[in-house]
Amino acid sequence: MKIEQIETFFVDRYLIVKVTTDDGTEGIGESCYWGYPKAAEATIHGFADAIIGMDAGDIEHIWTYLWRYNSAFRGNSIGGAVSAIDMALWDIKGKRLQAPVWDLLGGKVRQKVRAIAQGIGGNTPEECAIGAKRVLDEGFSALKFTPMPKNWADLTYTKLIGTAIEMVEAVRETVGWDFDIGLELHRNMQPHEAIAFCDEVAKLRPYFIEDPIVPDSVVAMGDTAAKMRLPLAVGERNMGIWEFREYAQLAKPAFFKPDIAVAGGITATKKIATIAEAHHIKICPHNFQSPIATAACIAVAVSSPSWDVQESVKEHIAPRRDVTDVIMKLEDGWYTPSDEPGLGVSFNEDAPVLHPFDPANSPPPIHDDGSVALK
Q1: Sorting pLDDT into bands at 50, 70 and 90, what band is 74?
Q2: Model-wide pTM > 0.85
Q3: Degrees, nearest 5: CA angle 357-358-364
Q4: Domain 3-99, what fold?
Q5: How far apart are CA 117 and CA 121, in angstroms?
Q6: For residue 327, is pLDDT > 80?
């Protein structure tokens, strides 16, 4: 089957790609370069002329060809574009062979995938506790949240650390000890702040500390991780196997957090999961986009021994719910993989009309002195 057409669609902030072959088979994928989605879209169309006419089944070749296209430039617009095309090609292959993608990746190493709930947080410990109670009642056994109020950039050092600890204490008191709490610091702390916070929060046994500092430097992340002495989770802004290799060697995290829609799609994420396995690192992927990215994650999760928990967002609510015909089954905090061919979901082509493009706008906060805060 030859690649005949590549199309892109925006649904709200989600960038969807559809690849069609000369026999009419369609595959769908998604890019998660959400900060600059128009750049990812332009990159996808820039790639289109290069791969139209290629055999859609040669996924590994096409992945490498695109990664090295135009002199091997780097950047998340490229990673997001390759990811979306790669997912669509795996979807096509599954439909052609009448097999789910997880089967093509080696079959099942597990029958279901544990979910870690998101969307818990607030500006006070009480608000965080309310969110924690909700996901506990929904059957989850793990959650991830950011233990900082929206005005964190305005807080003094002591207030920042103290408030964060109070929020985690409120959540732990709510969910009890038979429950895992991941802490997403959202790159909002300096190394010394993250280290001090980790010293105090260790008594509450966080499952991991995610992105304690900005991921500008693998070396700096490694230095911080060595001093904070709690499990590090990192990688949502990274792409390709080489950056994750450096994290494994220099930062020695407990968790990799590749975003399947920016790290390089199914092809790259399966390899990243193997790197993780070789270093006794677990996978907890970054995932807050549409059901297409979730379906791709579940395909790799079911087939990869190093996968641990799957980030979960509310896909039963619009606009996410309108992107696809079905969503991955989630019950009592567990995902069940689909047995349908390919990714197991189909794109709803009415979705772009229902939810026109609405780009994200997330500028960094500004300190009282006028300087840019971390984000």
Answers
A1: confident
A2: yes
A3: 145
A4: Enolase-like; domain 1 (3.30.390)
A5: 11
A6: yes
Give the angle subtended at the CA of 318 by the CAs of 285 and 287, to the nearest 5°. Answer: 5
The number of CA neighbours under 13 Å toward the Cβ of 318 is 9
- pLDDT-based confidence at residue 375 (cuts at 50, 70, 90): low
Percent of the chain at pLDDT exceeding 70: 100
Q: Give 193-235 pLDDT, tens digit per residue.
A: 999 999 999 999 999 999 999 999 999 999 999 999 899 999 9
Q: What is the mean pLDDT of the chain?
A: 96
CA 105 to CA 127: how far, in whole Å? 42
CA angle 139, 340, 321 (to 5 degrees): 50
Report phi then psi at 55, rounded to 5: -70, 120
Is residue 128 within a helix (H) or strand (E), and if so which, with residue range? helix 125-137
3-11 β-sheet, strand order? 3-11, 14-21, 26-31
Residue 236 and residue 215: Cα distance in Å, rounded?
Answer: 9
Q: What size, in residues, is the chain?
A: 375
CA dihedral of 80, 81, 84, 90, whole degrees rounded to 10? -120
CA distance 296 to 89: 12
C-alpha to C-alpha distance for 125 and 181, rounded to whole angstroms: 15
Name the class of domain 103-343: alpha beta
**Residue among 119, 221, 123 at smallest CA distance from 164:** 123
109 burial class (0-12, 13-18, 19+ CB within 10 angstroms)? middle
Q: 106 by DSSP, 3-state: which?
A: coil
Please, what's the b/e burial string for 198-234 (b: 16 or more CB within 10 A of its CB; e: otherwise)?
beebeeeebbbbbbbbbbeebeebbbbbeebebbbbb
What does the pLDDT look like over 263-276, one tens digit per residue?
Answer: 999 999 999 999 99
Give the start-to-end residue ranges of the domains of the chain: 3-99, 103-343
Q: How far apart are CA 16 and CA 30, in angstroms?
A: 5
